[in-house]
Give the backbone structure.
Amino acid sequence: MALAANNIDATEALIAAYPAPSGEGKWASDARVRALTTLRQSGAPVRRDEYWKFTNPARLLEPAKPAAILEADEVPVFEDTDKLLVVFVDGVFRADLSDDLTMEGVEIETLASAMSKDIHWAADIYGVLEANGQNPVSRPLAALNTAVATEGLVIHVTGKASKPIALRYIRSGADTDVMVHNVIKLDAGADLTLLESGPAAARFNSSLEVEIADSAALHHVRTQGRDHERLAATHMFARLGKESRFKSFTVTVNGVLTRNEAVIEFTGDDAFATVSGASAGDGAYHHDDTVFVTHDALNCESRQVFKKVLRNGATGVFQGKILVPSHAQKTDGYQIAQGMLLEDDCTFLAKPELEIYADDVICSHGSTCGAVDETALFYLTSRGVPKDQAQDMLVLAFMDESIQEIEDTALADEIRERLGGWVERHKD
Amino acid sequence: MLKIENLKASLEEEDKQILKGIDLEIGEGEVHAIMGPNGSGKSTLSYVLSGKGGYVVDGGSASLDGADLLDMEPEERAAEGLFLAFQYPVEIPGVGNMTFLRTAVNSQRKMRGEEELNAAEFLKLVRARAKDLKIDADMLKRPVNVGFSGGEKKRNEILQMAMLEPKMCILDETDSGLDVDAMKLVSEGVNAMRDGKRSFLVITHYQRLLDHIKPDVVHIMAAGKIIKSGGPELALQVENEGYADLLNEVA
Ligand SMILES: Nc1ncnc2c1ncn2[C@@H]1O[C@H](COP(=O)(O)OP(=O)(O)OP(=O)(O)O)[C@@H](O)[C@H]1O
Ligand SMILES: [Mg+2]
């Protein structure tokens, strides 16, 4: 279908907003050309698109507007975790602020360095998983990222990483437009924890492509926030081999608009993946999780667990799909998305979808939305817990089911503590 | 201790009066029992006294040591020393039993201007009390009442009561769902708390519980009113004869 003239203009404006990369190796420029072609075919996202009905993409297409930077009143995220820290300031890798990029069992390189080479293993992943993920639903902002991103890391995990790699995205400029693209390849049996944190930019476009070989495991914990006026569109593409594991959790507090897309594909049997998240917003807050899981193998288990706490007119969106082709027998797919509306003027929109062609599968999905449970509230207050504190306990308890998806208990506890802080700061 | 005068209450949602003029006075250290047919309003009385939403007080009063209960928030009533052991204890996934108990104990202490218990003091106390009630440590770690059996939930109510040390305890059918041994255990827990000052209102359908927890006064409630009060022999009469004669007597 031909694009409308105004969409052609919007798409070209989107591309023109970023400097065109040049002088790169052949694999990189090939990937960029492919992505540009994809983007020009699909066009910029518009409200009419099936998966943009609940979230207006308009603000993600405009150049970043100045957005207030929140004063740091909390300790930096993952401060107490022993980690290899990698810092980006306004989307630019800063060797001076980062740890040495060496660790046993892991090879870390900047995206720019990888792209300057004529031959690189990243050619098999960069823009490839993203291109796979364009079907059946187009993801124009991911194609844009592949076409123009020059910052990020390419990480090759060959064994068990001795500590997590923590990417910290610091924001210093008011109207920063930042694009980051990370590529991770885990060899068979390899194991890595990837942490991401920081507000990143006034407008942030992030893409993560992950290839997880047989029996390898990737744990991913990400915090987004806490700047109120920032915008973010993120994509995560993961391909899982036999008996591999992928666990990804995102906590999002504040942010006027966040769209997190995840595209998970099982290509080997007996693998496991969970994509989960807790989000909390007060006032001008629109948060969207859009997840697409394809079971292209036998006996794989996938979980999607999303909890959204909404106050003062905030909006939460969940679109989640589990696709099970006829050969993917013994699939176990679980999906739950719940909204807790602390005021009547909040909105929770959910579109859970199961598309199942195999007959021997267990798939369940659920979506609920409601206020704090009055019966539980009375039980707590009748024991002497003041009402506002009882409500906080129930709000945090509500989010806990998603936090339990995090494997590392120390990381899970840190997330609990941060959400506790948010709840404490956002009261009647 | 607890003084209820001509208390009338209706459901907020429907125009239906449940409590139709309750008069009840429980003195310091006394144990009163309320029996009555299903649906007569026993639980409603306990809810209205402890401040559950959804009810409208149409008239009358209720006070605890002179303090007007009906004017207070549920947490204030608790801090005043009122405790309700629920007929149906509530499951709260995601809230740890220990966290909940400690928050409750310390919130009450704070409201009363007393020193809060630190983690070690609290742990010591809760372990001892749990042991008395044969509640194992594993249960304490679980979320509030989640996955507890009916009897375990009731024992957990009594544990909360033992930790909070209220002065006026209302037990709503704490005996239902308990096996014979657990009933003894729970009764011992209650009796251990009888110190001549603390008062109890025990709602039950069975005389058996009253063999363990000996009441000073037994009240019969029917259709939102207390229709008869008497000594422990009244409970025996109910056990043997049912409510028919009693109801006819007043009719
Ligand atoms: N929220 C409510 N909505 C509708 N009806 C209610 C509600 N709460 C109480 N009632 C009604 O009020 C009456 C009294 O109920 P209550 O639970 O107090 O009885 P009870 O004496 O405790 O009975 P039981 O012995 O079965 O526990 C019943 O007819 C009950 O159906
Ligand atoms: Mg009852």
User: Anything to note?
Assistant: The radius of gyration of chain A is 21 Å.
